[in-house]
């Protein structure tokens, strides 16, 4: 390696306190380093808590909810630069602490631990690697004689704010090459871009937000979840919106942002709860209808920023004229509906905690009903179900017989989208899904990435732009989300390339939508063999709900409090605070719209 500039007296360090190849314990220097790192983590966490308390003088316990801070506020952290005669391990330790605090000082102190070209080439915002405290960090010698840090991985966030959860047992390994500078002090001369953050500190430094795009029919909003530094959240959100949706989502959504549009001032000013967004003159290319929709996108994107209640848009410092009313677009279109179940071989509604058999039950004699699915308002209250494992039929009404919609081996439980299309597929996938209307109109939906896999569950999101699919490939079960690509008339044509979520699950059988940004998956994780409900944000950490023995099916309406469980013994459970409450017996396959 060539000698970097501005470091005329560079010599590589030879460590004497690394673990020896024969597995002997680390020398005292390594023990001291680990102690310093743990102390630094504790000190950083304490600084974050104190900073939060200073800005939020509220009583009560600490919760996971996001504080309502004005957009201009941030959490101030402080770090010290390198100490004289610091060892290589001390330099790495100090750099990690300073880089975690760098969101408050633009990483000025962190760069004091660097030398040579690394001072200018290190890109801290390129990625965030989030690690857990499940086991202490481990240091060892890198192949080039530098310092290697190993920590348990929890997730990562890229430069676009996209969050990716790490699979269980994944480790982060990062190497630091150090050399002495002209003053004989150790400095880092080579390192990976990005910042390494303890999970407990990540949620204090970063905030979750969402960019909002539009369905192709312009009838609903579609969220694109991102994580950005808290101190400039409003600016980052608008910049992200102007840059466009995530690659996996892009084929199935649209935006009213004219090509070339940017912010003329690289900051969204928030004053007296009004966010001022000044767009470039390119934004004036939008026609009147597009402008009201663009405003709706920006307003909904900034609504989640603490302190923002109103948005004002200008174009090149001139008024951005909007005519007409701003449409009230939902990001989670949903209609209230009774829960539907299978009871005594027929469909029944759950009304006020009691069963109300549906009309046409006599037409189900001799059928093997399972997995009903309901439509939304505007789709003639479509209700379909499986008759045995291989036949998809409409639910009988009055004297009308069930109508056969699709047939195949081991069909997946159906899902009805907002436009009335019923989705299913044989479990053994050939890379295509089936979408069919109640009148028999059929569409072949291309999903080549499923070819050769085994599909377990399909659910279309409320706005109809996304699908969550549980499937198995090469013995591994995964949960993927993909955008729905439709024709001009709304006919589904294909699924885009998927994005993986819920990587911490070891198995799963079913997934349903619980809100615009979250799915609930029934599966296992960790070492627990019993299936339970996992809440999986589309860009965020997975959490678990309490387990109910024998759970085999789930459904949801609006929010995680609407989740209903069905057990193999026919018991029905609904959320009751932090626990589950049994509500009915001898019923199966609960279903809400979708």
Question: Would you give an account of this structure?
Answer:
This protein is an alpha+beta fold. Helix 1 runs parallel beside helix 2 and helix 1 (28-55) runs parallel beside helix 6 (199-205). The model is unreliable at 1-74 (pLDDT under 50). The protein has 8 helices and 38 strands. The chain folds into 3 domains: 28-205, no CATH class; 215-319, GMP Synthetase, Chain A, domain 3, CATH 3.30.300; 340-591, Neuraminidase, CATH 2.120.10.30.
Mean pLDDT: 86
Cα radius of gyration in angstroms: 27 Å
The name of the CATH architecture of the largest domain is 6 Propeller
Q: What's the CATH H-level homologous superfamily of the largest domain?
A: TolB, C-terminal domain
CATH topology of the largest domain: Neuraminidase
Describe the structure in brief:
With 594 residues, the chain is α+β, with helices and mostly antiparallel strands. The chain has 8 helices and 38 strands. The protein folds into 3 domains: 28-205, no CATH class; 215-319, GMP Synthetase, Chain A, domain 3; 340-591, TolB, C-terminal domain (Neuraminidase).
Keywords:
single chain, about 600 residues, alpha+beta, GMP Synthetase, Chain A, domain 3, Neuraminidase, 3 domains, seven-stranded mixed β-sheet, five-stranded antiparallel β-sheet, 8 helices, about 15% helix, about 35% strand
């Amino acid at each position: 390696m060539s000698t970097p500039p501005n470091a005329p007296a560079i010599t590589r360090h030879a460590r004497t306190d690394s673990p020896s190849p024969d597995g002997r314990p680390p020398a005292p220097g390594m023990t001291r380093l680990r102690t310093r790192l743990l102390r630094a983590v504790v000190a950083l966490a304490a600084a974050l808590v104190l900073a939060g308390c200073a800005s939020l003088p509220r009583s009560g316990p600490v919760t996971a909810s996001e504080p309502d801070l004005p957009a201009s506020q941030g959490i101030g952290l402080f770090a010290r630069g390198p100490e004289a005669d610091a060892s290589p391990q001390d330099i790495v330790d100090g750099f990690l602490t300073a880089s975690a605090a760098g969101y408050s000082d633009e990483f000025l102190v962190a760069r004091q631990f660097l030398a040579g070209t690394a001072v200018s080439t290190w890109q801290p915002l390129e990625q965030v690697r989030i690690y857990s405290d499940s086991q202490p960090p481990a240091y060892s010698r890198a192949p080039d004689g530098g310092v290697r840090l190993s920590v348990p991985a929890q997730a990562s966030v890229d430069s676009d704010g996209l969050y990716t959860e790490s699979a269980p047992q994944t480790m982060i390994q990062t190497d630091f090459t150090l050399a002495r500078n002209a003053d004989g002090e150790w400095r880092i001369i080579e390192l990976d871009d990005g910042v390494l953050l303890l999970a407990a500190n990540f949620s204090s430094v970063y905030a979750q937000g969402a960019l909002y795009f539009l369905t192709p029919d312009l009838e609903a909003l579609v969220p694109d979840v991102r994580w950005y530094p808290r101190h400039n959240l409003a600016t980052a959100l608008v910049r992200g919106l102007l840059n466009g949706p995530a690659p996996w989502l892009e084929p199935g959504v649209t935006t009213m942002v004219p090509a070339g549009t940017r912010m003329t001032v690289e900051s969204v000013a928030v004053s007296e709860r009004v966010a001022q967004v000044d767009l470039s003159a390119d934004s004036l290319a939008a026609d009147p209808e597009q402008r009201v929709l663009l405003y709706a996108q920006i307003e909904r994107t900034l609504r989640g920023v603490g302190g923002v209640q109103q948005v004002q848009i200008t174009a090149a410092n001139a008024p951005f004229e909007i005519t007409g009313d701003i449409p009230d677009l939902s990001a989670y279109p949903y209609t209230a509906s009774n829960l539907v179940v299978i009871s005594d071989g027929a469909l029944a509604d759950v009304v006020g905690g009691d069963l109300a058999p549906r009309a046409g039950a006599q037409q189900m004699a001799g059928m093997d009903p399972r997995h009903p699915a309901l439509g939304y308002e505007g789709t003639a209250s479509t209700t379909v179900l499986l008759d045995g494992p291989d036949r998809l039929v409409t639910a009988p009404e009055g004297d009308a017989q069930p109508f056969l919609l699709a047939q195949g081996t081991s069909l997946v439980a159906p899902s009805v989208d907002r436009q009335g299309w019923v989705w299913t597929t044989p479990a053994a996938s050939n890379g295509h899904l089936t979408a069919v209307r109640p009148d028999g109109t059929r569409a072949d939906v291309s999903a080549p990435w499923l070819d050769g896999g085994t599909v377990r569950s399909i659910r279309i999101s409320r706005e109809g732009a996304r699908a969550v699919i549980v499937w198995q490939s090469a013995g591994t079960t995964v949960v993927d989300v993909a955008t729905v690509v439709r024709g001009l008339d709304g006919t589904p044509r294909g699924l885009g390339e998927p994005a993986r979520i819920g990587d911490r699950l070891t198995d799963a059988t079913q997934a349903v939508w619980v809100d615009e940004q979250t799915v609930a998956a029934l599966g296992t994780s960790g070492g627990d063999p019993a299936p339970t409900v996992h809440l999986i944000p589309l860009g965020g950490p997975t959490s678990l709900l309490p387990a109910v023995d024998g759970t085999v099916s789930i459904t949801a309406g609006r929010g995680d409090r609407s989740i209903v469980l069905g057990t193999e013994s026919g018991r029905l459970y609904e959320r009751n605070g932090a626990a589950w409450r049994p509500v009915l017996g001898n019923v199966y396959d609960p279903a809400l719209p979708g």
